[in-house]
Amino acid sequence: MADDLPRTPAPRHSPVGHDAGTPEYGGPTGGWGSLEGIAKALGEAQPSPDALRTLWRQNKTKGVMCTSCAWAKPAQPHLFEFCENGAKATVWEMTRKRVGPEFFAKHSAEELKTWPDHDLEAAGRLTHPMRFNHATGHWEETTWPEAYAEIGRELTEIGPEASVFYSSGHAGLETSYLYALFARAFGHMNLPQSSNMCHETTSVNLASTIGVPVGTCTLDDFEHCDAIFFFGQNTGSNSPRFLHQLQAAVERGCRIVTFNPVRERGLIEFASPQNAKQMTVGPTTKISEAFYQVRPGGDVAVLAGMMKRIFAAEAERPGEVLDHAFIAEHTEGLEEMQAAVEAAPWEEIERESGLTRAMIEDAAEVYLSARNVIGIYGMGLTQHVNGWLNLGMLVNLLLLRGNIGRRGAGISPVRGHSNVQGQRTVGIGEKPKHMPAEKLEELFGIDVPTEEGMNVVAASQGILDGKVKALISLGGNLVRALPDRERMEGAFPTLRLSVSIATKLNRSHLVPGEVSYLLPCLGRTDEDIQASGPQAVSMEDSLSHIYGSIGHGTPPSEHLRSELAIVAGIAKETLPESPRLRWDEWTADYGLVRDLIAETFPEAFHDFNDRLFTPGGFYRGNAARERKWNTETGKATFTAPTMLSALGENTTGDERMTLITLRSNDQFNTTIYGYSDRLRGLKGDRMVLLLNQDEIERLGLTEGQRVALVCALDDGVIRRVEGLAVTPYDLPPGCVAGYYPELNPLVPLSYHEKNSQTPAYKGTPVRLEV
Ligand SMILES: Nc1nc2c(c(=O)[nH]1)N[C@H]1C(S)=C(S)[C@@H](COP(=O)(O)OP(=O)(O)OC[C@H]3O[C@@H](n4cnc5c(=O)[nH]c(N)nc54)[C@H](O)[C@@H]3O)O[C@H]1N2
Ligand SMILES: Nc1nc2c(c(=O)[nH]1)N[C@H]1C(S)=C(S)[C@@H](COP(=O)(O)OP(=O)(O)OC[C@H]3O[C@@H](n4cnc5c(=O)[nH]c(N)nc54)[C@H](O)[C@@H]3O)O[C@H]1N2
Ligand SMILES: [Mo]
After folding, report:
1. Boundary-marking domain end, from 386, 418, 450
2. Which UniProt keywords apply (predicted)?
3. Is residue 530 part of a domain?
4. Closest ligand relative to 761 C-alpha
5. Are residues 606 and 662 in the same domain?
6. Cα of 37 to ligand 2 centre, how many Å?
7. Nearest to 170 by CA among 412, 530, 428
C-alpha cells in the first residue's frame, strides 16, 4: 500500500523514493504477515506440544513473561498478549531439537565455526554440562559437581581483579541479584551487561539531566498524551506489542511524528492481529502523521531546529509558549542552551539533518499544538559518539513546556532484553552505587570492594590486553555482539577460564579459553522445580513495572539447572563458607532471594513476594516523574549543544559514508530466526549493503554486485567486511546500512559514546571498496 507521508527532500543528484528500485513491504505491520511469520517459526523450530499452552499464557498474570523484548504487559491483556517476535522467541526456546553429547561428538568446534549463526542456534536446546577438550577439539560431557569445583578453583586462583561476570538481559531478578552479590563477595564489580552496548547512554545521560537512569512514562501516559515524537526506535520489529498503545493513541487523536533514516513500516501503519475486522477488510491504522528520513546523527540538528522555532514562537507570543513556571522552579541552564540553539544557522541544521527548515518547523508546530508530549527513542539515539547530545536535546525539548513529570507526558527509552533494566535495578553494574555496600555488609558480613569495575568496553579491552583472565557469561553471545569482532574473536581463546551459561549454542561457545565450560540452563518457559516446589522468577519492563513469571514447559533435559542454581553452585565453590551465604537454601526457594532484594532495595521492592503477581506488574517508582530531580544541582538540567551532529567530528565530507547497523524482524540480536526482513521487503540474504539508488549510480555500482566495506577510522587496524550485495534502498544520501551482527567487525571498540562508552553502532564512518 502506498503512503502519502511527507518525505525527505531529494538528495543532491537525483530524486530517490520507493520507486527507485527500493524493495518495500506492501502490507501493514501486524496483520496476516505476522501470523505467517509465527507459523513459519513454529514449523522450523519444531516446538514441543507445551509451546501453544505457553503462548496462551504469555504476558498474562501468573503466566510466562515474554523472553523477547521488555515492553510492558498491560493489566488487562489482549486475548493473545504476544506479538510475532514474542511468539518466535517462545517457540524457538521450546523447540524439540536437542544439542547433547552426541551432537558435539559428531561436530568439532572448528567445524561448527563454519556454520552460520542461524544454524548453530537452530540445532536445538543444550542438554548436558560440557567441558572443552583441547586435545580433541570437541565439547565433552562432564558433571555439575566437577564443573562447579573446577570453576571455583580456577576463579580463586585467578582472583577477582582479573575476573569478569557478564550478563545479557535475560536472567530474572533473583539470579541477577545473586550474581551481583557473588561478584562483590568475591571482591570485584566487573559486571558488564548487554545494556553497556545498548541503553547505557540512557542510564548515564538521563541520570545527569533528570536524575533517573530510566524513562519516566507508564502505560497510563500513552492514554493521555497529545503528541508522540519517535527518534530511532523500530517499534514494528523490536517492540511490536507497543503498536497496540500507539494505535489506540492515534485513534483518540494523538499525533505521532517520526525521525528515522529508514522508513520503518511499523511506524507507518498497523493492522492489529487481535482485531478480526482489521485483519480482513481493514482499514489499517496510520501511525505517524509525518515521517522524516533524518540523516544518521542528524537528530541533534532536528531538535535544535525545532527549538529555534519554539523560541521564535515565544518571542511572537511572550509568556504563552514556554512553561515559565516549570522552568523557573525545576530547571537550570536554559539561557546557555537557548543561546547555543539560537546561534545555530539553519543552513547547518538543514545540512546535518538532511531535512528542510519547513519540515522541522512543521514538526515544531505539532509539538506546540500538544499539551502533553512524550519523547520515545531507541538505538538510533543511543549508539552514537554524541549520544549524550541526542538525549540532552530531547530532554531540552520536553523541558521547555514542562513535559516531564506530568500525566500524559515524559521521556520513554524503549529497552531491549526482557529484563535488561531489572538486572541493573538489583545491582548488576560496575559502579559501587549499583548496590548499597552497607546493606550487603550488614546482611551478609562481606567486605564490599570500593573500586569501580569494568563495563563491556573495559572488559573487552582487558581481554585484548591479557589483563582479564576469566569470563563468566550469564547468557548472551559476546563475540558476535561486540564491536571489533575479528580482534575480539582472536582474543577470546587466550582467556584462562571461560564459562557460558546458555540455552542454545552460539558462536561465543566456539572460541573456548584454556579451561572452558558450557553450562545448559532452564529457559524462562521451562518449569523450574526446586526443593520447595515450583519456582517463579521476576523481571522489570521498560516502564519500570515488575512481574512474576512462571514457566510451564517440560524442561528439554533432566540435566538442566536453573540459572539461579548455576550461579549459586559456582559461588559456593568459589567463596569461603559462611553461614550468611545460604546458597543452597536460596536455590531451594527463590522467595528467600526476593526477601533479600526487598531488604536491600526497600523503596522499590518492599513486600516483593506479596506483590509478585500484581496484574500489570507493580511500579517501582520514579523520582523525575514526581518532579524530584536527583541531579547534582537538584534540578533538571538543559544541555547546550556544542555541535549539531551526534556523529562527533566524523560528520560529512570526502568519500566516507555513515554506516548504520540494523536488526531485521527475523532476528533477536545475534539469534537469527530466519533470512527474511519482511517489514523492509528484504529477503534471503543478510550479507547486504543498503544504499540509495542515487549513490549506487554515483559510485558506478550495479545492483547485486558484491563489494567490501572498510572502516574509515584510522588507528592502524584494518577493519573490512567483504561480499556485501549492493541493494538499492530508500536511505538518506551518504548513509549505508547493513545487518548486525554481520557488520560488527567494522566498528572499532574505541569508537563509542563519550560518557557511557556505548559503541557507536549507528554512526561508523566507512568506505566502499569494489
Ligand atoms: N525482533 C527483535 N526485537 C528486539 C531485538 C531484536 O534484535 N529483534 N533486540 C532487542 C534489543 S536488545 C534492543 S536494544 C531493542 C533495539 O530496538 P531499537 O532501539 O529499535 O534498535 P535498532 O533496530 O538497532 O535501531 C532502531 C532504529 O534506529 C534507526 N536509526 C539508526 N541511526 C539513526 C539516527 O542517527 N537517528 C535516528 N533517528 N534513527 C536512527 C534505525 O533505522 C532503526 O530503525 O530491541 C529489542 N527487541
Ligand atoms: N552492530 C551492532 N551490534 C550490536 C547492536 C547493534 O545495534 N548493532 N546492539 C547491541 C545491543 S542493543 C545488545 S543488547 C547486544 C546483545 O548482546 P547479547 O545480549 O550478548 O546477545 P544476544 O544475542 O541477546 O544473546 C543470545 C544468546 O543468549 C543465550 N540465551 C537466550 N536465552 C537465554 C536464557 O534464558 N538464559 C541464558 N543463560 N541464556 C540465554 C542463547 O545462548 C543465545 O545464543 O548486542 C549489541 N551489539
Ligand atoms: Mo539491547
Report:
1. 418
2. 4Fe-4S, Iron, Iron-sulfur, Metal-binding, Molybdenum, Oxidoreductase
3. no
4. 2
5. no
6. 21
7. 428
Closest ligand to 417 CA?
Answer: 1
The answer to whether position 15 is within a domain reads no
CATH of the domain at 505: 3.40.50.740
Domain extent, residue 275, equals 200-418
Q: How many CB atoms lie within 10 A of CB 283?
A: 10
Choosing from 262, 379, 672 the residue with most ligand 1 atoms within 8 A of its CB, the one to mutate for a pocket test is 379
Which amino acid residue places its CA nearest to atom 26 of ligand 1? Answer: 233
pTM, two decimal places: 0.94
Helices within 255-333 (DSSP H only) = 276-280, 299-316, 324-330
Distance (angstroms) between ligand 2 centre and the Cα of 283 equals 36
The answer on 497 and 349 residing in a single domain is: no
SS (H, E, C) 142-174: CCHHHHHHHHHHHHHHHCHHHEEEEECCCCCHH
Protein residue closest via CA to atom 13 of ligand 1: 416
| 200-233 tens-digit pLDDT | 999 999 999 999 999 999 999 999 999 999 999 9
CATH number of the domain residue 699 falls in: 2.40.40.20
Domain containing 368 — which CATH number? 3.40.228.10
Mutation probe of ligand 1 site: the residue of 666, 762, 764, 766 with most atoms within 8 A of C-beta: 762
Which of 285-289, 598-602, 647-651 is modeled with the greatest confidence?
598-602
Determine the residue of 95, 170, 501 to mutate for testing ligand 2's pocket, defined as the one with the most ligand atoms within 8 A of the Cβ atom: 170
- Among protein residues, the one whose CA lies closest to atom 38 of ligand 2: 475
Query: Hey, what's the cell of 78?
Result: 489482549
Q: Does residue 330 belong to any structural domain of this protein?
A: yes
State how many domains the chain has: 3
* CA–CA–CA angle 341, 291, 760 (5° rounding): 65
**Pair 341, 268 in one domain:** yes
DSSP SS3 for 308: helix
pLDDT in tens, 231-258: 999 999 999 999 999 999 999 999 999 9
Is the pLDDT at 271 greater than 80? The verdict is: no
**Is there a single domain that holds both residue 339 and residue 462?**
no
* Index of the ligand 2 atom closest to the CA of residue 500: 38
CA atoms within 13 A on the CB side of 78: 16
- Residue where a domain stops, chosen among 400, 418, 436: 418
Residues 604 and 743 in one domain: no
Q: Which residues line ligand 2 (CB under 6 A)?
A: 121, 168, 170-171, 194, 197-198, 379, 383, 416-417, 474-478, 481, 501-504, 506, 521, 523-524, 563, 661, 669-671, 740-741, 743-744, 747, 761
3-state secondary structure (DSSP) of residue 411: strand
Tell me the sheet residues that pair with 680: none
Ligand 2 atom at minimum distance from 482 CA: 47
Q: Classify each residue of 46-58 as buried b or exposed e, where b means 16 or more C-beta atoms within 10 Å of its C-beta.
A: ebbebbebbbebb
Tens of pLDDT, residue by residue over 63-80, are: 888 888 899 988 888 877
Note the pLDDT of residue 16: 24
Q: Are residues 183 and 306 in the same domain?
A: no
Residues 394 and 443 in one domain: no
476 Cα–ligand 2 center, Å: 4
Let me know whether 162 and 251 are in one domain: no
Residue nearest atom 17 of ligand 2, based on CA coordinates:
481
